[in-house]
Backbone:
């Protein structure tokens, strides 16, 4: 009788542990040893919010390296460059469609347009951009912390390669990763 | 348990409804809204911006674009992936199922029906009565059978899976009147006649070496997101796209 009840509890804890491990696996496993042993792995390089939260526009075509979602309105197509911004394509004559400019939005993954206003995500902020003048595209408003998880999960929040990495501080935004001696606090499969 | 799985499979099939015919639905008297694909996590309906992250639905009143107001945050579930508007409904795709929300009160979306399925990746498109979902059951996304899952959603509180069409590696999809476009990654682009939406008839399969990920029908154009760039087709004849241009990455 006692043995049966022990087995039931053990099963229950096994399920909970598995769930926690699975979830940990989604976002990078944390090493619960303290202090975590030092290993050779990936170390975050942070950028400043003031630089990373600035929207800029260049009216020259840029090539696509990390293709993201597409969008269309009127004579223009838009394509997200995941983590970096939005390409603008002149589609007035589709057989001659070509990229004409790039709006730089760090941490970007989404786009929607209403009227002459483009909405996108700049990490955790909703950024509002006026596109009425294609020579002079600029941010006109911003809703800070509109998407709280956008400060933790964005294209550079983990290194590209698998292995140990130093868990980034959520106070700062990561712009790149370098190899170094690090506390093995996080692991990516 | 088997019954539950059967129900889930049933709902999955209906995912892809032809909202493409309704480009005009996004137009208000004062401003027009653009059009995204089925992989989008942002969408605008009326004067509201709706956005999903990995687990929740965020609603913003954007009647004054300079001062958006967050009016609602609604937890949906785990691994939420896509959002698709049709009239006053939002169809939200996630790894565990399709979730239907009412935006009768646009500032406060409320859950109507849910079609759960075995774990997989799924964008969804819908119209008045049918929701089409593509599920990709590979090792990354989960164990479901890959394919097009067609759900009857005439009762939005109770989606009912009607049919599953197995497809190799389906991803984004789009409805355009009585035509359904299903992107099939390296296996190309499949085109179905959906005059009878619960019995799609495959009319054409474009296999041209491109990896098709999503497609947006817009006026008489089909705008395709492929891994190597953007491909544009003229779809004046919707089941016989005419190649116009490829914009390489």
Residues:
């Amino acid at each position: 009788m006692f043995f049966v009840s022990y087995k039931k509890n053990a099963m229950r804890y096994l399920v909970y542990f598995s769930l926690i491990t699975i979830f940990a696996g989604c976002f990078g496993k944390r090493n619960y040893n303290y202090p975590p042993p030092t290993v050779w792995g990936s170390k975050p390089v942070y950028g400043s919010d003031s630089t990373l939260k600035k929207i800029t526009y260049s009216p020259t075509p840029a090539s696509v390296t990390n293709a993201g979602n597409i969008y269309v309105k009127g004579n223009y197509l838009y394509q997200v460059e995941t983590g970096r911004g939005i390409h603008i394509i002149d589609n007035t004559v589709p057989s001659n469609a070509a990229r004409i400019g790039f709006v730089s939005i760090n941490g970007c993954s989404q786009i929607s347009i209403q009227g002459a206003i483009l909405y996108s995500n700049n990490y955790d902020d909703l950024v509002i951009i006026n596109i009425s003048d294609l020579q002079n595209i600029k941010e006109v408003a911003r809703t800070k912390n509109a998407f709280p998880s956008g400060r933790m999960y964005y294209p550079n929040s983990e290194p590209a390669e698998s292995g140990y990495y130093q868990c980034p501080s959520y106070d700062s935004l990561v712009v790149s990763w370098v190899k170094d001696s690090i506390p093995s606090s996080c692991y990516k499969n | 348990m088997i019954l539950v799985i059967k129900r889930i499979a049933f709902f999955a099939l209906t995912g892809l409804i032809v909202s493409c015919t309704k480009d005009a639905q996004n137009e208000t008297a004062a401003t027009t809204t653009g059009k995204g694909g089925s992989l989008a996590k942002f969408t605008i309906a009326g004067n509201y911006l709706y956005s999903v992250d990995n687990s929740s639905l965020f609603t913003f009143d954007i009647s004054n674009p300079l001062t958006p107001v967050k009016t609602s945050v609604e937890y949906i579930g785990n691994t939420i992936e896509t959002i698709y508007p049709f009239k006053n409904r939002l169809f939200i795709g996630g790894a565990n199922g399709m979730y239907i929300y009412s935006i009768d009160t646009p500032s406060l979306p409320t859950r109507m029906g849910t079609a759960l399925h075995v774990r997989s990746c799924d964008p969804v498109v819908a119209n008045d009565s049918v929701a089409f979902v593509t599920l990709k059951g590979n090792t990354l996304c989960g164990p479901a059978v890959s394919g097009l899952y067609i759900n009857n959603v005439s009762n939005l509180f109770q989606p009912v899976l009607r049919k599953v069409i197995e497809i190799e590696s389906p991803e984004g999809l789009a409805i355009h009147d009585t035509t359904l476009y299903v992107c099939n990654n390296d296996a190309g682009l499949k085109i179905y006649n959906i005059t009878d939406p619960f019995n799609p008839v495959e009319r054409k399969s474009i296999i041209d070496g491109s990896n098709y990920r999503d497609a947006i029908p817009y006026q008489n154009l089909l705008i395709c997101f492929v891994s190597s760039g953007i491909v544009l087709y003229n779809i004046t004849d919707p089941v016989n796209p005419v190649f116009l241009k490829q914009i390489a990455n």
Summary: The two ends of chain B are 47 Å apart (CA to CA). The longest strand of chain B covers residues 69-75. Residues 2-12 of chain B form the longest helix (11 residues). Residues 1 and 7 of chain B are 10 Å apart (CA to CA).
